[in-house]
Structure prediction request, 232 residues.
Amino acid sequence: QFLMANKLDTAMWISRLFTVYCSALFVLPLLGLHEAASFYQRALLANALTSALRLHQRLPHFQLSRAFLAQALLEDSCHYLLYSLIFVNSYPVTMSIFPVLLFSLLHAATYTKKVLDARSSNSLPFLRSLLEKLNANQQNILKFIACNEIFLMPATVFMLFSGQGSLLQPFIYYRFLTLRYSSRRNPYCRTLFTELRIVVEHLIMKPSCPVFVRRLCLSSISFISRLAPTVA
Prediction:
């Protein structure tokens, strides 16, 4: 009754569980490397479906207008719909599957707990314990996801020069990264950029750091800072 009463949430729960399943079989290619590549695509397509359903839930009345598009781009679900479309037809990259896997796992765990509560307050204590441990590490998981989002930017450039990526991919991914940096609901990408800058500045200011390395790092920090969008 609980599942039928919340059909859209249930559909997203099932698609997230399927995303976790496909992502796991890509990361751990138990069925062979050829099958792993197909599971990579399936995971991203399932994530695109979940993101589209979530976006429909957040903005139910679609309008073909600039204002609606601007509002949609503020939603995290729109960001990850774009993310899935960027990588679904690209060469499989393990780094790119981790954000999809972990976000799906976190959201699926949250809804699984609601399903268990609807069934009985004491049902499946072992599963409840696993869900509580996952929830306790949520902040670390979100930081790890943000770290993946950041380091995928140079990875897309490397893929371009190695012949495994398209010319447009780094530019489209840069747009995705600016959306994540400006996210209202998830500040972790912005926080990680700040933390990484502090760590790098601390290391290069040590007397043992060569001058040319210090200058190169400072120039890189200045360049990246200019690319960062303004956050309200």
